[in-house]
Amino acid sequence: xxxxxxxxxxxxxxxxxxxxxxxxxxxxxxxxxxxxxxxxxxxxxxxxxxxxxxxxxxxxxxxxxxxxxxxxxxxxxxxxxxxxxxxxxxxxxxxxxxxxxxxxxxxxxxxxxxxxxxxxxxxxxxxxxxxxxxxxxxxxxxxxxxxxxxxxxxxxxxxxxxxxxxxxxxxxxxxxxxxxxxxxxxxxxxxxxxxxxxxxxxxxxxxxxxxxxxxxxxxxxxxxxxxxxxxxxxxxxxxxxxxxxxxxxxxxxxxxxxxxxxxxxxxxxxxxxxxxxxxxxxxxxxxxxxxxxxxxxxxxxxxxxxxxxxxxxxxxxxxxxxxxxxxxxxxxxxxxxxxxxxxxxxxxxxxxxxxxxxxxxxxxxxxxxxxxxxxxxxxxxxxxxxxxxxxxxxxxxxxxxxxxxxxxxxxxxxxxxxxxxxxxxxxxxxxxxxxxxxxxxxxxxxxxxxxxxxxxxxxxxxxxxxxxxxxxxxxxxxxxxxxxxxxxxxxxxxxxxxxxxxxxxxxxxxxxxxxxxxxxxxxxxxxxxxxxxxxxxxxxxxxxxxxxxxxxxxxxxxxxxxxxxxxxxxxxxxxxxxxxxxxxxxxxxxxxxxxxxxxxxxxxxxxxxxxxxxxxx
Length: 617
Hints:
Number of strands: 29
Helix content: 25-40%
Number of domains: 3
Mean pLDDT: 88
Largest sheet: 5 strands, mixed
Strand order of the largest sheet: 9-8-7-10-15
Radius of gyration: 35 Å
Strand content: 15-25%
Number of helices: 18
Low-confidence stretches: 1-32
């Protein structure tokens, strides 16, 4: 489109003399200054020339201005957007434009449609006109996460749509979180008596199931608002054991609407979606429901999703992504305490080390007491207890943080001194949960909801159950440990006729039926079954490394040992299962002459193999 330029004298009014389109005429760029004007649904620019004359040029057929400067704050980085009001062809619209995209003006057709026209060569003038005509722009900061934030000297806990601090609910803070988190609402009670009643309703949860189930779950609820952790809880049990119902009551401490049918996350979601939800859900509990492998082709993807999620929590790491202009965007690690449910525990030794596994068996949940807790949850009692707790913490946030750090160190040292045989991660997990539970009980004591004697009793019961749970956790670790599982798989192979072990001459060893041999039909001699995987000399057992590894993998079937044969040897040594190694050659394999031939083998003690073979496979 070409334009005819109307030249104006110094006394002419530009709002009465607009340029109109005319073929064959184009504007010149000889201006000294531009003034932008909005008039009759269009924007124009007035140029003051060196000659003293003025010319007026239309730049677009719409009017727009910035009314809001919005900062989207997720604590790790801030993202800016402009709130724009525009009018084109008499139609008014409001929308937001990313600040990074504003100058490119590509948003014009996307937001205003095909009737919005920017005149040729005027794109940057339209951009400048919008900014210069905007007048007063309201600045807004919108938080895109839950959890604690500090403003001046005040600590506020962000919920969906509002914040809670030492002075109660504050509606001045703008919070906008993903739809999955919209029910995180924990308004505190208006008076002390109501808060005490809410606290007692929360403590009633302890009577729903045995202490080994109820204490770690409720401790996790009240540890969540105290900051990040490097572990997750996994509530497991077969269908019909009310594990999801238990998890939902825990979740409803953070919002009455989040019952079993409206939990914030499930394993049906994608890995990216779960990671983003758990990043935005800072300092709260997030239930991820229904880890349920079916034995089909989708199980590999499901296990991969679980591994990524729980490892991200344990390592405080998210997956980085490429942004525009060859830049790497900030990763979004999970910042919530996860409570997952499932009929099967995710596989992997190191993965299970990042979980505290709580098992529910049939008949352990008191259905009557569970129903009572569910009614209290739906009525908002449990969320009110959490709201009061957050208000209490907000008035002493730094002090509480110091107490938690010191107490975790004390309790962790106590576990280590007692010498309980647990994984290296578990002492910290137990200490974190116990410290959170003790902080909650101090809150209840300060408000008069409990007595000093009851507080001491509840602390003692919790500590006892958490330590016993840590011992049980060792069984889950053993079931998933590649080295121990390898030994168990070999024992299965020997018992089922898939493998055998001979003496060093290749004949039947002592107690041959124990090592994969059976009598022939005439019961006159011993016959080996399956593949020969090793040799026996007294209590010394020598395994052929690759053959025994392949046999174990065959027995494992759809649940293979997840590490290579070489890595497996290292794990065997870490467990002190290798009776000897070749120190001179710095090798885990030793040389032995077996059946008249020098072979490189793994050296075990036969009694150790038989003792450890009882581990689940």
